[in-house]
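Q: Structure tokens for this one, please.
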Amino acid sequence: MKKLLIGFLAVGLIMGFAMTASAQPNLKASGQLYMYGSYADNQKMTKDGDSRANIGNRLRMQFEVQVQEGLKLTTRFDALERAWGQNQVVGGAQAGEKNISWERAYVTFNALYGVFDVGYKQSRVWGTCAFCDDYDSDAGISYRYMMGPWTFGANWDKRGNWSEMKDPNLNGATAIGEGSLQSTNSGLRTLNELGGTDNDHDVYQIYGIYRWATGQAGLRFEMERDAANGKIQSGGSNAALAPYGFWNATRTDAWVATFYEIAPYVQWISGPFALEGEFRYVWGKVQYDDTGATALIPDVDRKGWDLYLMGKYTMGAFYGGLEFVYISGDDPSTADKNEAGQTGGGGWDPLLMFGNYWFLKYQGALGNVSWLSNQTSAANRTDANTFTVGEYETNMIMFKPFVGWKVNPQLEIVAQFAWLRADEKPRVGSNPAGAQFVSDDYGREFDIYATYKLYNNLSYTVGFGYFWTGDYFKGADASRDIDDNYMIMNALNFTF
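A: Here is the predicted structure, written as tokens:
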């Protein structure tokens, strides 16, 4: 409550300062209260699996203070993002005291040429948003210049810096500034002893977008340099972090990852036809500082790609279409290469269950987590993760036809069916020498849902989904019993 009061006080102070700069400051408030409930019959997808039921919600508030023409401040916070009745503990305090997150605070101003955004702002949103994550905010600077139908821009995002951060997977190891490390474990070595990295995680982008009467197209180039995870290193029983999902054994040397990405997209509408597509190709390298390493392991080359295609045809109140998604997976047989594409984002929900942010947030990942829950070694935790599918899409091929019916201005009904499989079959144990999964078949999912507008700003959605579980979820054990899962959901969405 104190944080909320302080937040509103801060907004009031901002408005007060704005009054001194302009006689007519303009405050615009917008937001969303989203309440989501679901029942999952067999989330572990095992024989005699337990059912789960949860209701979650999130309040999102955004304030825009237009101080004068060409100068604006934007802030946003999320509050009460948790399940109903959840006695969540954060940092030793109850969630009701701590569950307020100020995500954005940035200033927008016009310069001689173009517009700047500076501060904590929206990031990781591009193109069709099939692979985007609009829940994220990062600190940085954005610039854009509009010239007729063209928009040109550049971004710098500061996504990480390991000053006074802890990783629970590393037994409480804490990085205190550059080149130093503290831990209760005696086996840890300092970054300086390893040769060192600089703790930074930065992303640089340039892009261009062209818009015309019936569509738009864009092209973005990105460079990402991440050394933020490379200094939490250990001897003894601690395991080093494996960057970006790359398999590696316990490392005792730091690493720096440098990746490049090119991402074109197009959206086009002509009469009843609508088409859109997006492509992403990422390449680069993870380079290891082998100083003091007990066993030299080669650097890792990165080459992966994503593809999204959607076609839609509208005929009166009815519409139908096809959607295809490919996110390349990592070939487990190549220890010095990673072929994985970029992951999908939490802002994209292709289905009611598979890859759905809200469903998986409150019901847990699809698959049998508990099968390895009593095994605590780092290797077995890695194995457990490969048996589950969470809200971020990765290593996936999806083919999805869908149909919809706009019954009237208030009511819309949608049905969809998806075939899903992994691009690559993972391995367990001592990857890449471990046993390979018996199948790449995730399964199939059928959904039907309806959304009714109670008011212009208030809608209610109810839906049903059924998931035919594929043999992927057997892992490497062909005899393992699996079973299907189904869900029932409803959601109340209030916006203003």
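A few notes: Residues 38-48+106-495 form a domain with the Porin fold (CATH 2.40.160). Confidence is low (pLDDT under 50) at residues 1-22, 163-196, 231-252, 369-386.
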